[in-house]
Here is the input.
Amino acid sequence: MEMKQLPEKMARMTPQRRVILEALRKSGNHPSADRVYELVREKLPHVSMGTVYRNLETLAEAGMIQRLELGPGPRHYDAGIKEHYHIRCLQCGKIEDTLVELPSGLDRAARIKTGFQVVGHELEFVGYCPGCAKNIGKIKIK
Ligand SMILES: [Zn+2]
Ligand SMILES: [Zn+2]
Here is the structure.
């Protein structure tokens, strides 16, 4: 994925953070902190869960990765920082990128309708992934 120029305020790139960032990029699929921890431990066997978690938060605050708070369960992280939208499976919790593009001018439309000073929007698609949809007969829809 093409990366934007990193902002000036970027977090200092320690060797540990580099390994964490690489693990996140390689995992490619919006892992939870637990999953990133497993991947990082392959390179840094003595790293603690707390260290991985704190570094993920620091990187997210510096805008170098995205923190995703989608649905119930743990936070997920995304190495992709360009604006894009996600779809989440209601059965297995899998999160994928959508390539859906929204019409431009949504924020402006919301401002006009509400009078709010709009700074952004959040959008999440939800449904059943192909694997889970196959078993749809067995799924109890809440
Ligand atoms: Zn699924
Ligand atoms: Zn994503």
Summary: The pocket of zinc ion (ligand 1) is lined by residues 89, 91-92, 94, 128-129, 131-132 (CB under 6 Å). The mean pLDDT is 88. The domain at 1-81 is CATH 1.10.10.10 (Arc Repressor Mutant, subunit A). The chain has five helices and five strands.
